[in-house]
Amino acid sequence: MTQPERSASVAGEARVVALVSSGRHPVSGRAGRAREDARAVEMGLALAGASLHLAHAGDAEDAALPEYLGMFHGLEGAGGPGELSLLPMAAGDDAVPLLASWLEAYGANLVLTGQRAECGEGSGLLPYLLAERLGWAVATGVAAIEHYAGDRVTVLQALPQGQRRRLEVRLPCLLCVDGVAPMPRQSAFGPSRRGRVEAVANITAEPDTLQAAWQWQPARARPKRLKVVKSTNARDRFKAAAAKSAASGGQVLTDLTPDEAAQKLIDYLRAEKVLPAVQPGDEGQSSA
Amino acid sequence: MLQTLLPILIFAALAVGAAGAVRRIRLWRQGRRTPMRWHRLVLMPKRYLNDLHHVVARDKAIAHTHVATAGGFVAAMALALVVHGFGWRNPILGGLLLAASLCMFIGALAVNRRRIDPPAKLSKGPWQRLSKSLLAYSVGMFLVSLPLVGVAPTVLGGGVLALILLALVAWGLAEMLIGMGWGGPMKHAFAGTFHLAFHRRPERFDDQHRDVAHDVHRGSRSTALFPLDLTAKTLGVEKPADFQWEQLLGFDACVQCGRCQNVCPAYAAGQPLNPKKLIQDMVVGMAGGSDARYAGSGYPGIEVGKHHGGPSDAIVPQLVEAQTLWACTTCRACVEECPMMIEHVDAIVDMRRFITLERGETPEKGAAAIDNLIATDNPGGLDNASRLDWAADLDIPRIQQRPEGVDVLLWLGDGAFDMRNQRTLRALVKILHAAEVDFAVLGDEERDSGDVARRLGDEATFQRLAERNIATLSRYRFQRIVTADPHSFHVLGREYGAFGGNYVVKHHSTFIAELFDAGRLSVKAAEPGETVTYHDPCYLGRYNGEFAAPRQVLAALGVEVAEMERSGYRSRCCGGGGGAALSDVPGKARIPDMRMEDVRETGATTVAVACPQCTAMLEGVVEPRPQVKDLAELVASALVEPAAAPTARNSSEAPEEVPA
């Protein structure tokens, strides 16, 4: 299913960057590689080899950084040590402007990253905000890179139930790697020790004012809806258990103008009581 | 004619042999240098005559053969040098030379008889030739020396006969002296001499060992892996030149006797490992070339002659396939059997270290276990707080609540997460309660000892775990550590010392035996008719010399023990050590199946085990088979609890565990 990535001969010219974040182990909560970001690095190494560059906005002492650098082994060619550019910032700062200006300065044309961080806000919005700011294309749920040449990259996008969709994305672009992408290689101690973390100088992080204004509260565990299958037939019960909840009651809208589409979404969110039902008047663009 | 040609022959052979020896020494010195300790050369004779002979003498016939042949040769050579070389033609010396040659001849005959239909473990090729060369040398030397005592007339001094004799002696000298220096079979004597003197583990020869058990069992005197300097330029061994020079020297000492091959569980299971071939491959790598000239059994499933190496070429995969290294269970059976005291396991772990730490190519499940160890401190990736879930109803004291200290710190090991081993641990706790032992556990502060990480080559993770465990242990007060896991027992007791953690660690079999000795346990008599056999765990027995205590415990229970053919220091591994259960290299048979076959041969209905790994591996053998019980379980089920004892709460769980 996962087809071998073909690294195009022009890849030497291209500047491939993987954005990595600090992961949290689901059991112990210890810092380490984030699962999707590690897959993004794996995809980058398979594509660009040792010329892949890593970037992280955050704390230089993060235990996850050496683990990512430890993946720089078994590469064709020189296979030098991994390099990571660190954009120093505090936990409450906004990573988007830092990363955007750095990516532009670096001249990246293909940026790989996971779909969402495992700690902090973890909203999964960062790739979109980055792409918006840079004016780049963004593709999510990437399971594999099929072809990478010239000004285009062909990727396979993961859809529910093992389906794949082939997308052709114009460069430069941001690819958000899905959890179904190939397993990341082992992080080895030797390469992690040799990897270089270079703090980028002359940047100042700005506090994330939006986030600071938010009100935080612990998540409330919601009761799960039981799926009762009324069938005496084992085959039906199996199908019901195996099937992912297929979309029901939805509608496919095509040929809408962006404004109409946005209005439909707002209507839907109102119907689901995600947005207040009564028009407050001042919250027009926050859902963009 | 003889009197002029013999000295020339002898000195020429010596000179050519010496030139080869210098070249050989250069090969060894390609390895990483360590400070030279020349004075150790003095220790060589004792190490040879005592320690080496001790291992060789496990096979009496070979020992006698070797004493006659080698002793005869050394004497004959020394005397020939004086008599024929320097021309001191003394009849007494001549008589001694004749006797020495005769002695060597008798030994050589025995060697030749063994070589008529050699067992599969032996290498053929040059080693077959050696047996003939020994005859040639001894016969030739005997005959040319006859005139010295006047038995044969000086007729021998001329003519065709003299030429034939000279040819015989020359053949012998070429094999014995030139071959010794230039890598022939006799190389083993030359390399072996220095190997014994400069052995990397001098403690193996130390008869005044601190621990009596290790003194009795020589194999367990020095078994801890060497710590790796994590700041070194490259970690582990990539190419032969990365070995320490003493290790290269050790490889060269191999006599290809195949004792290691005979006891290797992976080889028997048809996995691609043969300790003898591995050592020969290291020699090929050190000297450069291909393995095509190897004349013994290869790695099962891998053709001989397709691999090549050089001192500065990567070992894996050109010279040795990674699968070969991952098949090793680190059971130390090969090291135990090796008459030349070669350290196979050290070499394998050194090469694994490079694969894991530099290449990141640990077998998949091994890599997952290492990742889990890094993230959760246990190889299963489980919540460390659940380490005591199985003991929720047992009221086990925590050491955190005992600042004044306890007698025994019970180290649970990672078996605490395994449902099978939890039964063993429950039994052990029951015993401790019954004997009113003052004990406590670390609870969720306990981490994996690091055994698996270390054997898989991840020294970084091992050292991290060791340092954290040592820091934890330093916060609490206890007299000794008791554990039901021989791997933890070995690592805590013998490998943490290098990192500043020195503890009295006892395996639960030793501790229970002590409780019996002190009369603190009372058990009911065993039911007659049931036969039990005992499987020695490698890390308890071969690694730590504890063979007696488990048998003492079984004797205290009054059960009849039927020993397996391979027991004690020759116990066969269960297949679960050294991360082999994780790397799971395919073979023709499964190691635990073969071990269970050993158990069946004794007719035992129960096999007593003393290790969570062994329990898991042996219980993985399909039924019907003898049942697998840990010593603790056997003792716990036989316990007679004093009526109205203060530990009455335990009697409520006397009926066996109800599955939750």
How are the SSEs placed, and which strands pair?
The complex is a heterodimer of chains A (288) and B (660).
Chain A: E1 6-7, E2 16-19, E3 22-24, E4 31-33, H1 35-48, E5 53-58, H2 64-69, E6 83-88, H3 95-106, E7 110-114, H4 126-134, E8 137-149, E9 152-158, E10 164-170, E11 173-177, H5 189-194, E12 196-199, H6 209-213, H7 234-242, H8 258-271
Parallel strand pairs in A: 1-8, 2-5, 2-7, 5-6, 6-12, 7-11, 8-11
Antiparallel strand pairs in A: 3-4, 8-9, 9-10
Helix pairs in contact in A: 3-4
Chain B: H1 2-28, H2 44-56, H3 60-85, H4 91-116, H5 126-145, H6 159-181, H7 187-197, H8 212-216, H9 245-252, H10 259-263, H11 265-268, H12 275-287, E1 289-290, E2 308-309, H13 322-326, H14 333-337, H15 344-359, H16 364-376, E3 406-411, H17 419-434, E4 439-441, H18 451-455, H19 459-473, E5 478-483, H20 486-495, E6 505-507, H21 508-517, E7 531-534, H22 548-557, E8 560-561, H23 580-583, H24 591-601, E9 606-609, H25 612-619, E10 627-630, H26 631-638
Parallel strand pairs in B: 3-4, 3-5, 5-6, 7-8, 7-9, 9-10
Antiparallel strand pairs in B: 1-2
Count all strands of chain B and give the number.
10
Considering DSSP H and I runs of 4 or more, what fraction of the residues of chain B is helical? Answer: 40-55%
- SSE string of chain A, helix = H, strand = E? EEEEHEHEHEHEEEEHEHHH
What is the number of helical segments of chain B per DSSP (H or I, 4+ residues)? Answer: 26
Separation of the first and last Cα atoms of chain B: 93 Å
Q: Which strand order does the major sheet of chain B show?
A: 4-3-5-6
- Cα separation of the termini of chain A: 34 Å
Oligomer: heterodimer
Number of helices of chain A: 8
Report on the biggest sheet of chain B.
Answer: 4 strands, parallel
Mean pLDDT of chain B: 92
CATH architecture of the largest domain in chain A: 3-Layer(aba) Sandwich
Q: What count of structural domains of chain A?
A: 2
Low-confidence stretches of chain A: 1-12, 282-288
Low-confidence regions of chain B: 644-660
**How many strands, which pairing sense, and closed or not: the largest β-sheet of chain A?**
10 strands, mixed
